[in-house]
Amino acid sequence: MEYSKRLGHITPAQFQAALSRFDLGTFVRAEAVVGGLFGQNVFVTSTSGAFVLRGAPHYEWQLPTERFFARVLHERTSAPVPWPYLLDSGEDIFGWSYALMPRMPGLNVSDPAVTATLSPADRLAIARAVGENLALMHQLTWPAVGRYDATLDTVAPLRDGFAGWVVGDVRDWLARAQRHSARTTGADVAWVEQLLQGALPALRQPFQPCFVMNDYKEGNTVVTRATRAGDAGMGWRVTGVFDLMEGFFGDGEMDLARPVAGYLEEEPLRAQAFLAAYLDRASARPGLSERFAVYLLRDRLIVWEYFQRHEVARGTSHGLRLKPPWDPDVTLREWAEPYIAEAAALIARHGSGGWSSDA
Predict the structure, then answer these.
(1) In a 10 Å sphere around its CB, with 0-12 CB exposed, 13-18 middle and 19+ buried, how is residue 282 labelled?
(2) pLDDT above 60 for 316
(3) Beta carbons of 238 and 223 less than 8 angstroms apart
């Protein structure tokens, strides 16, 4: 059966061979995973339990990197990550390397069938839980900024320091977008440079390097309604986080960008709830607003470049509050600046004591 285009056809005998390699019981069934951009995962049930098989990696370092971060997060924090992360680098079973890990319990809110069952109060509570969990993950600290090098099995320092790396990365995504489309204009480039220069003092503020997932969002988590004896159990908690391939050690504030942007597209109150839940548990350094403008711009540039490269035309906004990146009449600044302005207003309001995660 074909479980995704990327994984292709997988037979029960192949699933059994993978399970047997790690002594994980007898194969019972497999299920396609709803959602996900690349189709690398399939749910597998055996007589030993429920697992996720993740295969056909994009790069040789993808699965080793995920295993490294799953291990250190498991060992040093209480964040719910899939562990043990069992990696088989051989290609004799499927034609590609793969990993097997426990299937994390909970609901994936990116599934429309799940979203349809949730009330507005549930969605706010889930946003708060996602913020609380991010603070847990950022308890994993490291002596210096750096990326995991799978070939050396160590964390290698970032060149140019963190501020220099961030500025260079923003410029790199900007240049890529320019190569794909004229919709990234000279005026857009000047705006980006002005924003970068204004944020340099804030970017150079010292910080304790911590784990940065770099793709943290509701879609990469599962959540469970937290129940207590004697109440209705309206609270929620994150019970699983996955897709750790982009992780590195840097400024944890960078991880706020993707969820804030996603919430702003749909419902600003969820952005407020998420951000407050995180900031109530993590100490914001001076210059947060200026730094976060760069972090949010970097995240939006990654999305912008993707749509310019693939020339994806969606036709409608699909209910988004803000302009979509595939709108042919919008330039980079016209699309990205509203995110930055709305996020700055949220940060300013929180800094003035205007709201907290319990509001």
Answers:
(1) middle
(2) no
(3) yes
Axis crossing angle, helix 186-203 with helix 161-180, rounded to the nearest 10? 170
Q: How does pLDDT run across 25-78, given as a tens digit for each residue?
A: 999 999 999 776 678 999 999 999 999 999 999 999 999 999 999 999 999 999
The fold for domain 112-351 equals: Aminoglycoside 3'-phosphotransferase; Chain: A, domain 2 (3.90.1200)
Q: Where are the domains of the chain?
A: 12-102, 112-351
Reference 135, options 213, 229, 39, 53; nearest CA is 213
State which amino acid sits at residue 54.
R
User: How many other CB atoms are found less than 10 A from the CB of residue 149?
Assistant: 14
User: Is the pTM value of this prediction over 0.85?
Assistant: yes
Three-class secondary structure of residue 310 per DSSP: helix
Q: CATH fold of 12-102, please?
A: Phosphorylase Kinase; domain 1 (3.30.200)
